[in-house]
Design a protein that fits this description.
Length: about 140
């Protein structure tokens, strides 16, 4: 068994990491944590981040480092250890997440879903919904 969790650095992604880490420790399975840099610029902490720029890469690295720390903490709470690895990818998040899972033989995917409002949970462009639609392996969506 091997598990994949995608993070965007949000609180709901942090919960997905914790859930994935608990599941991985239960099965003594490795956990791969990915962050996908999107092709569109976005606002991060009040600064415009353009994918491929140093600011975007640094944000991705910090996000993955924090995610690894969260996974280790979740495992420690269960008096266990966890094998983690991280990777920074680029592209459309749902496409990259599902392709990475399929290409690397992952058994399950964990993602967070913001769902801040009824309208956003019904939005067709939601990453979590797209991952559910495109994945060939089980997906756990954490709210």
């Amino acid at each position: 068994m091997q598990y994949l969790v995608a993070t965007d650095g949000s609180a709901v992604s942090d919960r997905a990491i914790e859930h994935a880490a608990i599941e991985a420790t239960a099965w003594d399975a490795p956990l791969k944590i990915i962050h996908v840099l999107t092709p569109e610029p976005k606002l991060v902490d009040g600064s415009l981040v353009i994918p491929g720029s140093e600011a975007s890469l640094e944000y991705g690295r910090r996000t993955l480092s924090e995610a690894e720390r969260l996974a280790a903490t979740a495992a420690e709470k269960r008096e266990a250890t966890i094998e983690t690895s991280t990777e920074l990818l680029a592209g459309q998040p749902a496409d990259r997440i599902t392709a990475h899972a399929a290409e690397n033989g992952f058994d399950a995917i964990y993602v967070g879903h913001h769902g801040d409002s009824e309208a956003s949970s019904d939005r067709v462009g939601s990453v979590a919904k797209s991952v559910l639609d495109k994945s060939t392996v089980p997906v756990t969506v954490i709210k």
